[in-house]
Amino acid sequence: MKTKLSLLSAALLTASLSLAPSLSQAAIPMAVEGQTVPSLAPMLERTTPAVVAVAVTGTHVSKQKVPDAFRYFFGPNAPQEQVQERPFRGLGSGVIIDAEKGYIVTNNHVIEGADEILIGLHDGREVEAKLIGTDPESDIALLQIKADKLVALKRADSDELRVGDFAVAIGNPFGLGQTVTSGIVSAMGRSGLGIEMLENFIQTDAAINSGNSGGALVNLNGDLIGINTAIVAPGGGNVGIGFAIPANMVNNLVDQIIEHGEVRRGVLGVSGRDLTNELAQGFGLDTQHGGFVDQVMTDSAADKAGIQAGDIIVSVNGRNIKSFQELRAKVATMGAGAKVEFGLIRDGDKETVTAVLGEASQTTETAAGAIHPMLAGAALENRNSGVELTDIAQNSPAAASGLQKGDLIVGVNRSEVSDLKSLKTILADQQGAVALKIKRGKTNLYLVLR
């Protein structure tokens, strides 16, 4: 495995050396016809050594429950499930954020399931990486390597970004080696895309392709403004719509992983929806941006801070938000215990409240919405034989799905559900509509989530 991985990475680095010209050797004219020629080369000479290639190998394990009829035919010794193993290799990108400690940020989907992770440095070195921690819901992973003479990127305040700011993407598309593309910030606070459970993306038209995942999105100073994560690619290639996780969101998650070895997700304790034009008109508001609060969980951080149902949350720590999804992503990626200031509109008046975020537990709506968008609005709790809906907000996605308070989730499609962890794991592997097996009193039924 290790030899194959080294050969794979060696091929990658060879391609990098043969296909990507050395910026330090490029002859760039300083002036044409007496006019200074602007160039990104000086900035890139400083920043590109901090962006690395990530090569992984591993084994995908898939399990499928054996039908009851099969077990009946072959007797009690028949296997309970079929297990298939399939080896895989993958390539992606990463960003060195701490040269002294060797910390590298990449996407969780780049290294998920990997048995070995090898880092290809800009100077041709190959170093095996250790996985420190991940957050699949936001698609962030933190690696660590032991190497000297590393270069790290300074992280910018991504909340200061504006639509129209220049952006440069650095990564390893299609395994060709390090490549640089430029563009602008096309939009901020993109959510509701169904790419990740927690979405608050920077959208950019800087070309991002397969293999750029985990690479750097930087500003013209060479500071990290985001981690390149996903693209809209109907034809399989770049069409000018790429998405990056903001640097501030990455900072919050990385700090938690370094300190605790995991993400201790913050919880506000509200359910709600985006502020629509109809809601804005109904409340006589001159804004259509923000998160409308449908329900406040009893004894939650929101309840203790004085947030009420009907409030419209329009800012977090003084920064405006566009949607409830953006609010959820910002709060969920802040650590438990974080002190957060929320700007509200209540009865047409602006107010400010401060909340100390709780920690994600087994009974929070935020956890339910993160597990599946159509579970948003439900409070979930482990039971001996499944996951119970202990509360549900009116007009929430969970209520619209037909779920009711007291329902016990015992299965998804053909897989059994024993607790929240298994429910989350099963749903993460499903594509499209899924069927929840529900126990409601003495009745068993299926409800479809789309």
From TrEMBL:
Residues 1-26 form the signal peptide. PROSITE patterns: PDZ. Transmembrane segments: none annotated. The keyword Repeat applies. Pfam families: PDZ (PF00595), PDZ_2 (PF13180), Trypsin_2 (PF13365). Residues 257-348, 377-442 form the PDZ domain. Keywords: Hydrolase, Protease, Repeat, Serine protease, Signal. Belongs to the peptidase S1C family. This is Do family serine endopeptidase DegQ.
